[in-house]
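#structure-requests
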Amino acid sequence: MWGMLDKVTRDTLTATASIIQCSNGVNGNTPTEVTQDDAELALDYLYQNDAEKMAPVIEGVNRFGTAPIDESYWVLSDTDMRSDWKALESFIPTSQYPGQTAVLQAEFGAIDEARIVLSSQGGVDTTTSPATYHNLFIGSGFYAHSGIDEVAAEIIIKELGQGEDYLNQRQTMGFKAFFGALILDDNFGVNLQSTLA
């Protein structure tokens, strides 16, 4: 249920956030694949609008092959973008973070001052050719979601034996929710559109 409501929130952000199209790649598409320069444009947008970072510093420790991670914004991206993020020169995978306690389950890595979270439910527009990927760079206070009443979400389970089923074989489960998602301040987030390399 919450995965579906997260997707509704993601679709709202993708459809209404300010857009920067990647233009520094070499794949010949519009937009192009993401490059370090394109990621810097998205970060510059957040800095120029005084967006606050959301993820704390991960301090460096004396461990071989690790690097400290700056205080960061979040990037919500699709799992198809894995190789493109890895190709950026500033990319640091989560395995090279000096500490793992602050790492999210879906976190993939970091670029400069942004930590990347991947989802198979990420923003992808497959009606374009090639598909356009929506990579949301998010600062604190960019968006909110809320239930509309005190019982905003309800899971409904009908056990076996409910109703007039002849062989008692039917069981159902579903949910209903009253839910709203919106951008609070468009200056604190941006949709960096790209195609794949």
